[in-house]
Amino acid sequence: MPQNSLSxxxxxxxxYGDFACNRTTRIMALVAIVLLVLVAGLFFDTNFKxxxxxxxxxxxxWSIPKLEHVAMRVIPASExxxxxxxxxxxxxxxxxxxxxxxxxxxxxxxxTVAMFHQLRCxxxxxxxYVNEGSHxxxxxxxxxxxxxxxxMLCQMDMRTExxxxxxxxNGFDQICYDWxxxxxxxxxxxxxxxxxSV
Length: 198
Description:
51% of the residues lie in helices and 11% in strands.
């Protein structure tokens, strides 16, 4: 046997073999730890996204219960809603005419509630009438005129109204849907969206 060759039983071979085995074990352990961290990270990330998505879906909804009917006295003349009165500023809920809804893919979409859109248009027209004081008409006011015309035609009220002077006419009774649950849901939606978007 040549002088430089080693036998398998040589102590130097075993030490090197132990080191090689040790090194392989360390590398495999490191790979196993890295894989474990990656798998755990994917699980927690997916779980976090699922929880966030479920939380968002639960918070950003637009769910109106079946609306009850209420009686309302419709009076053409109103102190609270004279042109230029402060009442016009408070027609809409805190979030204005918009609500935010979580879609099935987790994204958030913004919608306009038709009733609030109509009220916003009344506010815009009132403001244009009071503040412009001329025959100029903004594109937004034009939009509102057309929007109100079309929605009134779509949801027309077929009852008859007694004619008379607006100064002496005492109004009429009307059965309406209770709009309080709509305002309440809009406030809940705005509060949830405000917390979510922070």
